[in-house]
């Protein structure tokens, strides 16, 4: 706003107010007296520009955006710890600690048999990435096998600035109240491990609500996450009684997004010296990335569409690929419209 009010402009404006009968050249008494004042005024205008940006949520930096969002009860979501399944050959004590790579995990609950729930001690998405053999921090008698096998509830990084900004503006766009769609979205999205949801009011008669979830890694949620959300929103056995976050009279069913397999057949012309086996891993990686991009938009889309043009464009950027044609999705040479509660997963891929 004040970018044109530079030191040179301000100094010249001040000098223009001095009669021409007085020496105003650089080095003169008047010039040397006004120059420091012009420099200070220029700095004030720079600070005023910063204040203007920080005063509005669309341009505020993180620190001031947090203060603005707090006025509407919106605070940044803190990093959360991943909850995972561990499998052992013996019973292990609750509280036992194990390490895998640079991360440590603590046993918190027995699931079934020798399977236990473990919590990563390091908050954030880093706890979602490692699987394999666990090493006990302290000796456990009879232990010969310890494996970290599955994510139950994904850990999440601290909410970034743009996500917080979008969430703040969403509170202005629509009002959450008394179990309306916005209310369910806000409450459920605050639960650890939830990456998005679709709300279906009156899906099975009056007073019924169906929530379909995707996890924070934009994949199919675990049964443990579905049960956790169900118990927080409307516990089984007490549905409709207002025991959870759902209003009295709302019978809520929590369900999982489904994976819909997408088989891809295509005719690829290769660069000299290349064949399908050489490009297969690259091709599968770009398709998986495309499907992940689609899954990120699932909660805001009526139906996801897997497009042949997108697949061919991405495959053309794969090393060794010269041209591509005749692409078929699940046997048909046309775009694939997924079910409304489905996300794509790569099936057989033939090039």
Automatic annotation (TrEMBL):
Segments crossing the lipid bilayer: none
Domain Baseplate J-like central: residue ranges: 176-255
Superkingdom assignment: Bacteria
N-terminal signal peptide: none
Domain Baseplate J-like C-terminal as annotated: residue spans: 262-349
Entry's family note: Belongs to the Mu gp47/PBSX XkdT family.
PANTHER family, sorted: PHAGE-LIKE ELEMENT PBSX PROTEIN XKDT, PROTEIN JAYE-RELATED
Record-given protein name: Baseplate J-like protein
Organism in which the protein naturally occurs: Ruminiclostridium hungatei
Source species taxonomy: Bacteria, Bacillati, Bacillota, Clostridia, Eubacteriales
């Amino acid at each position: 706003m004040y970018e044109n009010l530079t030191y040179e402009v301000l100094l010249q404006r001040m000098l223009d107010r001095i009669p021409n009968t007085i020496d105003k050249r650089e080095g003169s008494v008047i010039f040397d007296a006004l120059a420091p004042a012009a420099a200070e005024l220029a700095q004030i205008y720079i600070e005023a520009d910063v204040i203007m940006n920080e005063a509005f949520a669309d341009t505020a930096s993180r620190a001031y955006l947090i203060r603005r969002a707090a006025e509407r009860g919106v605070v940044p979501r803190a990093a959360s710890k991943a909850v995972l399944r561990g499998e052992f050959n013996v019973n292990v004590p609750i509280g036992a600690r194990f390490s895998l790579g640079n991360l440590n995990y603590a046993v918190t609950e027995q699931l079934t048999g020798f399977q236990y729930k473990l919590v990563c001690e390091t908050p954030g998405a880093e706890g979602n990435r490692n699987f394999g053999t666990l090493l006990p921090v302290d000796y456990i008698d009879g232990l010969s096998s310890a494996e970290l096998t599955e994510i139950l509830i994904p850990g999440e990084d601290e909410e970034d600035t743009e996500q917080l900004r979008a969430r703040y503006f969403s509170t202005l766009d629509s009002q959450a109240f008394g179990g309306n769609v916005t209310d369910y979205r806000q409450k459920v999205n605050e639960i650890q491990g939830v990456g998005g949801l679709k709300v279906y009011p009156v899906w099975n008669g009056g007073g019924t609500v169906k929530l379909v979830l995707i996890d924070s890694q934009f994949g199919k949620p675990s049964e443990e996450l579905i049960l956790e959300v169900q118990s927080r929103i409307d516990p089984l056995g007490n549905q409709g009684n207002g025991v959870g976050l759902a209003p009295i009279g709302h019978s809520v069913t929590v369900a999982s997004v489904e994976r819909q397999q997408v088989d891809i057949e295509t005719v690829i012309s290769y660069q000299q010296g290349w064949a399908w086996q050489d490009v297969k891993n690259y091709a599968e990686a770009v398709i998986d990335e495309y499907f992940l991009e689609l899954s990120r938009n699932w909660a805001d889309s009526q139906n996801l569409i897997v497009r042949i043009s997108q697949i061919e464009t991405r495959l053309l950027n794969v090393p060794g690929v010269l041209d591509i044609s005749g692409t078929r999705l699940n046997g048909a040479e046309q775009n694939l419209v997924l079910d409304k509660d489905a996300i794509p997963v790569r099936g057989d891929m033939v090039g």
